[in-house]
Amino acid sequence: MIVESRQTIMDIFELSQNQSEIIAIPIFCDVHKHPAENNLSLVYLASQDSDYIIPVNHPDSDIKFTIKQVEGILSKFSYIYVNDKKEFLHAFKWGKAKSRKVLDLNLAGWYTTNKPIDNTEISTTAHDFIERRYISFPRVNTIIPIYKHLQKCRSVKENTFKRYSTDTMQQRQSYTRYNEDMLYILYAIESAGLYTNSKIEYTQYNPYTSTGRPSNRYGGINYAALNKEDGSRDRFISRFKDGKILEFDFDGYHIRLMAEVVGYKFPDSSVHEYLGKYYFDKDKLTKEEYNESKGMTFKILYGGIPKEMRDIEFFGKVHKFTRDLWKKYKSEKFITTYLLQRRLHADNLTEMNAPKLFNYYLQALETESNVLILKEVFKVMSSYKSKLILYTYDSFTFDYDPSDREQFFVDIKNAMKYPVKGQIGNTYNSLKPLVFEHAL
Question: Which residue in 181, 187, 226, 430 has the most C-beta neighbors within 10 A?
Fold first, then answer.
């Protein structure tokens, strides 16, 4: 039903008195713009038995609701189911506490099947025709008739508004951590944007990958793998007067994470220097040997521990862990991630073997560790003006406001838990080692 009268508004409020949950689909004006810089055209709301589409900015309707009025309607419900929580938050700019009532159905589907819900093929003839004919028009969703949007949203609802059951209370708690922490963190990073000389570029994280490590692509650009050699990073600058781009990289991140899992303690100094002493049987490495040590460690860790390396205590422990993990996977048909306890079910994983399963486990460990660390980083940043603008596996990139002074470096370093190396520069392509009074 299209909300066009006082009576339909009253119907929605009556619905909120009888039901505590609703599905919401925001429809933006421009199909080509990132949700962070887009405007709402319509909002679809539905229960199991009834639905409404609320005009915000569409020429078909003489009534135009404000964002605040739509939020007033949404506030009446205890739970709001969405297909994309990050997109919803970009539309309404809710804080973390308020966003807890927003439950992501795509996340629930991924928890169950290890695959995202696919709505890409859902359309109407009107959508197909108008989007093809007016491909460059900036507000194409305002041309498509409201009743056609209603038709499409009903199909999306049928495809996604399902009851996903979890195996245990543990899995429900795990889903909650992902829904409340990870999705909000990714939304917050996207919201900051990357400044250039001519515009703001926005990133878009996709957490629903086979391993659980988020990808980060938008507008044909892979922000998780920006080229370091072709100068393309040079366009990214600070938004602040005399500001800098600041990056912190973890030292031997995966190695330290696995050391915690298997009960091994590395020194705070470089793990590559530490392990290189075993590889080269010497106390001091040359620069070439250090770089070779890094390559050897990654090859050993990710490719399966060769027999001759198992005498090194850390690798011996990892080998035993990998073997035990594979046995558990084969006998119980699932494994559980170390930190947030998400289950990876054998039915959802293909062509699995022990080294591949270990890599899945390790990437999930990295992601969940980042979620917990980023949660602390954002707590620290609430007292500063600087922005977190990019998260890439084992490094965090900030737009640094010099008014935050050196204490910002100290507080972020402490929040990141593990040893880090800092770099700073005028552009993302000109980073140099960070040196300050309280050296990292």
Answer: 187
- For 26-71, the pLDDT digits (tens) are 999 999 999 999 999 999 999 888 899 999 999 999 889 999 999 9
247-303 confidence digits (pLDDT tens): 999 999 999 999 999 999 998 888 999 999 999 998 889 999 999 999 999 999 998
Q: Where are the beta strands (DSSP E) in 160-303?
A: 194-195, 200-201, 205-206, 215-218, 221-222, 244-250
Q: Rounded CA gap, 262 and 307, in Å?
A: 18
CA distance linking residue 210 with residue 363, whole number of Å: 10
Residues 392/224, Cβ–Cβ less than 8 Å = yes
- For residue 175 the two structure tokens come to 């889903």
Tokens representing 436 are 């300050």
Question: What's the rounded Cα separation, in Å, for the pair 176 and 340?
Answer: 10
| Alpha helices per DSSP H over 193-270 | 253-262
Both tokens of residue 134? 């007016």
Q: 174: burial class by Cβ within 10 Å (0-12, 13-18, 19+)?
A: buried
* Amino acid letter for position 80: I
